[in-house]
Design a protein that fits this description.
- Chain A: It comes from Microvirga brassicacearum.
- Chain A: Keywords: FAD, Flavoprotein.
- The complex is a heterodimer of chains A (324) and B (733).
- Among the domains of chain A are: 1-52, Uridine Diphospho-n-acetylenolpyruvylglucosamine Reductase, domain 2 (2-Layer Sandwich); 223-320, CO dehydrogenase flavoprotein, C-terminal domain (Enolase-like, domain 1, 2-Layer Sandwich).
- In chain A, 28% of the residues lie in helices and 21% in strands.
- The longest helix of chain A is centred in the C-terminal third of the chain and has 15 residues, at 306-320.
- Chain A is built from 13 helices and 12 strands.
- Chain A has 324 residues and is an alpha+beta fold.
- In chain A, helix 12 (284-295) packs across helix 13 (306-320).
- In chain A, strand 11 (252-261) and strand 12 form a beta hairpin.
- Chain B has 733 residues and is an alpha+beta fold.
- In chain B, strand 26 and strand 27 form a beta hairpin.
- In chain B, the strands form 7 sheets. In chain B, strands 3-5-1-14-11-12-13 form a 7-stranded mixed β-sheet, with helices on both faces. In chain B, strands 9-17-16-15-10 form a 5-stranded mixed β-sheet.
- Chain B contains 19 helices and 28 strands.
- Among the domains of chain B are: 404-445 and 588-733, Aldehyde Oxidoreductase, domain 4 (2-Layer Sandwich); 456-577, 2-Layer Sandwich (Aldehyde Oxidoreductase, domain 4).
- Classes of the chains: A alpha+beta (324), B alpha+beta (733).
């Protein structure tokens, strides 16, 4: 691990000022960053410890559930109002990592966690995300656990967050501060496709800080659920996952949301495809048509095509088991 | 009278382990200790042009960087064939000699510019802190001219070697002619594949070397301190008595710490050169390449049976790799020789050299991958014959050791089948695939036979009775999590009519009396008879000292007798002889696994929901630690069946998942209740206590029982492990 300067911020303003320094990273729970520093993948010159900042709230205000960026994954998952208002959020958090890691990991850190692609995480494989232009070993036939949606010639790395998939289905917004300016962007616009620049993963700029996550409180959100598929029963990233929310009246779909994880370079959702399901009853045929449309842009290899089958199986299971 | 043996005794070392009092190798912190870490080659084959170390040397706290350019001279570090023959690189050489008279030169890292596998150590950095060593290790930049490399077995085009005897069995057995296919014969002929697996014990290997004058103490994580002492001493060109190896606690080994590996000697060489204690720590990534692995296997199995099920022919041909310079290969056919008798029998092994690290024994080497193939094939045969797999296996119970032409000392396999089937509720009649469903899940049951030899080697145990304090038991054997501390205490307690609490067992020190390496399930049968003899010798010496007949001794506390005799302490040793040459009978353990799975095909999920295993392992010394051993073996089998797969990059021939995030092993949530039944019949022709080791027998057969259960659930026969979500949703593609 490269030696670094360790700074502690006592206010958001102080943190933002420190984060404006070159080669500086914010340290919250540290469950990804410290790991990657030990592996030699991240080597910031400065770490700003932001754990003392007052960003741990979990509060319902009007029609919005606001969750502070430094609320721990455990605290959010255990919160009764989160469970009642958007159960998928709790299920997604509890499906990830381990109890110890969830205690340390924060919501903002969860959104900014980096891919688990083994080529990215090891300092001596080529990787366009870690070292732009160096190449991608996954593209050379080692893509069994890689993405099939949102890929580019430069990168196939899967986005690892369960939380982000649930938030995408819940139409969440991310609160961001930079200097004195604050902005709010939808989660759908938060992540960037890899394209030719896989090292740029979000719209967050240098010196910016996530302060909170807003989740709209809707009847649809209260129906949300999360299903995660993987090779063992816990403590593993998703091979495929799906967050769904479904609101039916008289046996017909009025509103729904379906977001996918484990398949995309970013959390994946297709609102156009969702319109195929709206207005009618949920039949096997229409669910299949929806899956066809949702997965149409997929570029799969023989080794990772199973992810498409898993995603179909998960979507079908979630929709068929929902009351409609 | 046996009071302690047979009692479910808690581990006597348990409190030390859970409180952190037990010191593992890397817990030792001698004053002035330096930290050493290795740098691995990212390419699988090539020649090192140069290694750039300037950036690494500029890291604060760096003391030294060794590469092939300076290590031989600075460390007296050379690939001496006689020394390498003692190491993991040499194991299997005799077997390969017949096919390859001239051995390839032995591999030792940092002795030359050639890269022979990805992950090969090309440098070691030494620093005053672990953090500095880690930073510097990332800055060492090798310039390598790459060559072509392959780790894939190519059945058609590879040049295979045909080894001779290995593990006391001919690797090329051919008896009888393969019969002409008759109309009434059922034939199964399939190819089964098992992937490369890593041992990944919880405690990664580490060696701390501390010199005192011309002698060195090596704190190590090894299954065998005596073998390690010999390897380290020979490497340092020192007499044995100048090297002491201590491995009091070992956080799992599974074979990965059974042989000796370069780091164990290298730490001592570096400490000598730098004049300071050195800790050489293997990282998790090192554990995937620097202390052996179980290689992949490809096995063709053909069975031919008459319509009543009687086996007329068995062919088991294994294609297994070894490294370019090492010699170990999986003897996958062993259990086919021991368990199945057919007029026509062909059990052959073809070995091919590939560009990866040298493989090594891994918990039931040979038997584990071999049993997956053969026990799957027997299940396929049962379905082809429309017979219950249990009925068919009962027909196949080997009446004697046909291969060695000897009777069994004891064989209760039939009782294992009976009691296991009863506890499990094994169904009668033909098992119809896809017949049981519960909601989205298909339910299936499968079974398989397991068997493992019961070897024993000579061992010595020393007892020390003192006027005050606990009675001490000393031997150089290691407890790698097996329960050796506890069963030695139980054995001595019984012989001396003492409570277990009155005994202190001290293990894993090469200054203690000789004991074999813990491996191949031999320690119990090697050590316990020696402990018995030591206890009896102690009583005799005490009787002589107090001039009383032996029979009177038990009435008064031993320590009082010692005091009365005016002695501060009294020592006695006992030994065991191991198996005699020219044995008249064969010593083997047997068992059967019965497993239920649930398969959710749409979600690609396989859950193991019930396991009952019934085993014949002689008398059980400690049902608690014995059950733990078997459960651990079965959990290994579950990992092998469903998850474990050391995956290689197809063109770069480099392991991709050399870490525990990407190399999946089961978590608690994957493991159901595992019901272990011991038949418990003492094997009194083996030793007086009738005990056999049981560290490995839980593993063979488990993966086959799971694959057989998956077939019963889904009708899908999976012949390539692991049975991943991908395999389930692809439907046996």
């Amino acid at each position: 691990m490269r030696s670094f300067e360790f700074l502690q911020a006592h206010s958001v303003e102080e943190a933002l000022a420190l984060l404006a320094l070159p080669s500086t990273k914010a340290l919250a729970g540290g469950t990804t960053l410290v790991d990657l520093m030990k592996l030699g993948v991240e080597a910031p010159a400065r770490l700003v410890d932001i754990q003392a900042l007052p960003l741990t709230e979990i509060a319902v205000t009007g029609e919005t559930l606001r969750i502070g960026a430094l609320a721990s994954n455990s605290a959010v998952a255990a919160d009764p109002s989160v469970r009642r208002l958007c159960p998928a959020l709790c299920d997604a958090l509890l499906s990830g990592a381990s109890g110890q890691i969830r205690n340390a990991a924060t919501m903002g850190g969860n959104l900014l966690q980096r891919t688990r692609c083994p080529f990215f995480r090891s300092h001596d494989w080529p990787c366009n995300k870690r070292e732009p232009g160096s190449g991608c070993p996954a593209h050379e036939g080692a893509d069994a656990h890689h993405a099939v949606l949102g890929t580019s010639d430069a990168c196939l790395a899967v986005h690892p967050s369960d939380l982000a998939v649930a938030l995408l289905a819940l139409d969440a917004e991310i609160g961001i501060r930079a200097g004195h300016a604050a902005r709010q962007v939808s989660l759908a616009a938060f992540y960037r496709l890899p394209g030719e620049t896989p090292h740029l993963e979000t719209i967050i700029g240098a010196g910016e800080l996530i302060t909170h996550i807003d989740v709209p409180i809707t009847p649809l959100a209260a129906t949300s659920r999360y299903l995660k598929l993987r090779g063992r029963a816990s403590y593993e990233f998703a091979s495929a996952s799906v967050a769904t929310a479904l609101h039916c009246e008289n046996g017909r779909v009025v509103e729904l949301a379906v977001a996918l994880g484990g398949l995309g370079t970013v959390p994946w959702r297709d609102r156009q495809a969702e319109t195929l399901l709206i207005g009618g009853p949920l039949s096997e045929a229409v669910i299949n048509r929806f899956c066809d449309a949702l997965l149409a842009p997929a570029r799969a290899s023989a080794a990772n095509a199973y992810k498409l089958a898993l995603a179909r199986g998960a979507i079908r299971r979630m929709l068929e088991s929902a009351s409609c | 009278m046996l009071k302690q043996i047979g009692i479910a005794q808690n581990r006597v070392d348990g409190p030390m382990k859970v409180t952190g009092e037990a010191a593992y190798a890397a817990d030792r912190r001698p004053g002035g200790q330096l930290y050493a870490l290795a740098v691995r080659s990212p390419v699988a084959a090539g020649t090192i042009t140069r290694i750039e170390t300037a950036a690494a040397k500029s890291v604060a706290g760096i003391v030294a960087i060794y590469t092939h350019a300076n290590a031989p001279a600075a460390l007296d570090w050379h690939a001496d064939p006689a020394v390498m023959a003692l190491s993991g690189e040499g194991l299997g050489r005799q077997a390969l000699e017949a096919a390859e008279p001239e051995a390839p030169p032995p591999y030792l890292p940092m002795t030359g510019p050639d890269i022979v596998f990805a992950g090969q150590w090309i440098a070691v950095v030494v620093a005053t802190s672990l953090e500095a060593a880690r930073e510097a290790s990332l800055l060492v930049k090798p310039i390598i001219e790459p060559h072509e490399a392959s780790v894939e077995i190519d059945a058609r085009n590879d040049r295979f070697l045909e080894p001779g005897f290995f593990f006391a069995a001919d690797m090329q057995v051919q008896r009888g002619a393969w019969p002409d296919t008759a109309a009434k014969q059922q034939i199964v002929s399939e190819t089964y594949r098992t992937p490369m697996q890593n041992h990944h014990p919880m405690e990664p290997s580490a060696t701390v070397a501390v010199w005192d004058g011309d002698a060195v103490t090596v704190f190590d994580s090894t299954q065998g301190v005596m073998a390690t002492r010999e390897y380290v001493a020979r490497s340092l060109k020192l007499p044995l008595d100048k090297v002491r190896v201590i491995s009091a606690f070992v956080g799992g080994g599974f074979g990965g710490k059974n042989q000796t590996w370069p780091h164990q000697a290298l730490a001592a060489h570096i400490a000598r050169a730098l004049g300071r204690p050195v800790r050489l720590q293997l990282t998790r990534a090192d554990m995937a390449v620097a202390s052996g692995h179980r290689s992949q296997t490809e096995q063709d199995v053909a069975l031919q049976a008459a319509s009543d099920g009687s086996l007329t022919a068995l062919r088991h041909v294994s294609r297994v790799p070894t490294s370019l310079h090492g010699n170990f290969f999986e003897p996958s056919g062993l259990n086919s020789l021991m368990l199945y008798e057919a007029a026509a029998l062909g059990v052959r092994h073809h070995v091919v050299r590939k560009a990866f690290a040298t493989p090594t024994p891994f918990r039931a080497p040979g038997e584990t991958p071999g049993s997956f193939a053969v026990e799957s094939a027997v299940d396929e045969l049962a379905h082809a014959l429309a017979q219950n797999p249990l009925d068919l296996r009962q027909r196949y119970i080997p009446s004697r050791d046909h291969y060695h032409d000897r009777d069994w000392s004891s064989n209760n396999l039939l009782e294992c089948y009976r009691r296991g089937a009863e506890a499990f509720g094994w169904p009668e009649g033909v098992i119809v695939p896809r017949a049981r469903r519960d909601g989205h899940e298909l339910i299936g049951v499968g079974m398989a036979t397991t068997a493992y030899p019961a070897p024993a080697l000579p061992a010595i145990v020393r007892l020390r009775l003192r006027v005050e304090g606990k009675l001490q038991v000393e031997t150089s054997a290691t407890d790698i999590g097996t329960g050796m501390y506890t069963i030695l205490a139980q054995t001595v307690a019984d012989e001396l009519s003492l409570p277990v609490e009155a005994i202190e067992v001290r293990l894993g020190d090469s200054n203690f009396p000789h004991a074999p390496t813990a491996g191949r399930s031999k320690s119990t049968a090697s050590l316990l008879p020696a402990a018995q003899h030591a206890a009896r010798a102690l009583l005799q010496r005490l009787a002589a000292a107090v001039r009383e007949p032996l029979s009177e001794l038990s009435n008064v506390a031993l320590q009082d007798r010692l005091k009365a005799a005016g002695l501060a302490e009294l020592e006695a040793e006992g030994s065991s002889t191991g198996l005699q040459v020219g044995q008249q009978v064969s010593f083997y353990s047997f068992g059967a696994h019965f497993i239920e799975v649930r398969v959710d095909e749409a979600l690609g999920r396989v859950s193991v929901t019930r396991v009952v295993s019934a085993l014949d392992c002689g008398r059980i010394v400690n049902p608690k630690t014995a059950t733990s051993q078997i459960r651990g073996g079965i959990i290994f089998g579950i990992g092998m069946a469903l998850m474990e797969d050391a995956a290689f990059h197809p063109t770069r021939a480099r392991m991709i998942n050399d870490n525990l995030a990407d190399y999946a092993i089961p978590v608690n949530a994957d493991i159901p209740e595992i019901d272990v039944i011991f038949v418990g019949e003492p094997d009194n022709r083996f030793n007086e206590l009738g005990v056999r080791g049981l560290g490995e027998i839980g593993v063979p057969g488990t993966a086959a029982a799971i694959a057989n259960a998956v077939f019963a659930a889904t009708g899908q026969r999976v012949r390539n492990l692991p049975i991943t979500p991908s395999a389930i949703v692809r439907g046996g593609e």
